[in-house]
Amino acid sequence: MKRVFFGVICFVVFAFGGLVVGGAIAGAIAGSKVKAVGLADGFAKGEQVGYAAGAEFGQKYGGIVLIGALVLSVIGTATGFLPGTKRKPSK
After folding, report:
1. Which of the 8 DSSP states describes residue 38?
2. What is the pTM of this model?
3. Is 26 domain-assigned?
4. Hey, which of 6, 18, 29, 91 would disulfide with 65, CB 3.0 to 4.6 Å?
């Protein structure tokens, strides 16, 4: 039961982490292409464009990230590779 619990925790971490990192990269790339006059204007426009790009990443690739996280957590749990999922040694 403990192994399953840790597998589910790892799934959540992988899924959330993958979406955050992917959205941040998409937002940073989109925000870096904004042409603006002044620091405040550039920040405001970059934030809007970056937010939209991050949301689009989540809609476009969210399913793939979730399936990948599920596969990684199931394989990692089954093999005992993930923390807290090692099998107890038989006596």
Report:
1. S
2. 0.82
3. yes
4. 18
